[in-house]
Amino acid sequence: MAFLSDTLARVKPSPTIAVSNLAAELKAAGHDVIGLGAGEPDFDTPDHIKAAAKAAIDAGRTKYTAVDGIPELKQAICAKFKRDNGLEYEPAQVSVGTGGKQILYNALMATLNPGDEVIIPAPYWVSYPDMVLLAGGTPVPVEATLENAFKLSPEQLEAAITPKTKWLIFNSPSNPTGAGYTREELKGLTDVLMRHPHVWVMTDDMYEHLAYDEFTFCTPAEVEPGLYDRTLTCNGVSKAYAMTGWRIGYAAGPKELIAAMRKIQSQSTSNPCSVSQWAAVEALNGTQAFLQQWAKVFQGRRDLVVRMLSEIDGVTCPVPEGAFYVYPSIAGLIGKATPKGTVIDSDEAFAKALLEEAGVAVVFGAAFGLSPNFRVSYATSEAALEEACRRIQSFCAGLS
């Protein structure tokens, strides 16, 4: 009898975490490596948020809390949804977890049965399919190609829905592409969903506040109120507020679903860190002025990376509407070889050779379900990005 669970054999470790860990190990060993793998803002958590955490510690707010969030944080989340998205929720409709990933996982664990299908537009965040598999469901990737600006069309969604479909996982702006759906594009998808009342929507809005140029963020239940009762609107404080290590994610949806998610969490992690919850209260209730300032910085970095990567023969780099990623195609480089003789026969081979021969760590596209591409995170300094892009240019120029 095997010791490890059969379920574990269905999933793989996170490739993005693996790349970040490898880059850190190489740096620690003395190698000159620029890591562009981590989806983590390089800004520090704002001082007023850190002060709220310190005040919580000083006030002795270091005990167990309610399983899925303190009342003050749930109220702040309700206020955020009303302020930013025009969505009315009450605290009983809100769940707070240890990061956005736990919120998504709890919902899938609480709802999926063997045979249930989950539609996932590809490219996708690497964890979506594996979380579906862990929960016993069947991921159904649907490719949104470069030609379609990495966006799922209504026709593709309609064709993917079957009687077994339980969820659509929707992410805009997207990790890994940065693609953002306009209100009109999203309305096309919600119109399809309105024709299929058995399909629920799990919307990952983690990059809501990272939107550039003329793009305006919107979320499914906001665009189509008829979906309100079968939408789980998910978000968190990690990306917008530079609070990745604080581990606070949240969601709002129907009470029955939230209660089921609470039951899962009560027998797994129980409550999120008490101090982090109080910091999140301040993040959501306090000043939001810096969000626009940070977005301007990210937009400048985006423009730098897109410009430099677009100068490379064989690379196509579309301009993303949001988040802090670009997802260039290397279709024009496949089949070429490095001066050391490494053949670029896949995006994984490209990423490996780029790290070994140029000292730049990126994540290969196959990890996100669409090849041949690679993901660059520009959530780092402009100087590091410029040097990294120079190295990528030089590396690609040396292929033959």
Give the oligomeric state: single chain
Distance between the termini: 51 Å
Average pLDDT metric: 96
The gyration radius over C-alpha positions equals 21 Å
The backbone outline, from C-alpha atoms, is globular
What are the key terms here?
400 residues; alpha/beta; Aspartate Aminotransferase, domain 1; Aspartate Aminotransferase, domain 2; 2 domains; 7-stranded mixed beta sheet; 3-stranded antiparallel beta sheet; globular; Aminotransferase; L-aspartate:2-oxoglutarate aminotransferase activity; pyridoxal phosphate binding; EC 2.6.1.-
List the helices and strands and how they pair.
Elements: H1 15-28, E1 34-35, H2 47-58, H3 71-85, E2 94-97, H4 100-111, E3 117-122, H5 127-134, E4 138-143, H6 154-160, E5 165-171, H7 183-194, E6 200-204, H8 220-223, E7 231-236, E8 249-252, H9 255-266, H10 274-285, H11 289-310, E9 325-326, H12 347-358, E10 360-361, E11 363-364, E12 374-377, H13 382-397
Parallel strand pairs: 1-10, 3-4, 3-5, 5-6, 6-7
Antiparallel strand pairs: 2-8, 7-8, 9-12, 11-12
Helix pairs in contact: 2-10, 3-10, 4-5, 4-9, 6-7, 11-13
Family: Belongs to the class-I pyridoxal-phosphate-dependent aminotransferase family.
Pfam family, one: Aminotran_1_2
Subunit structure: Homodimer.
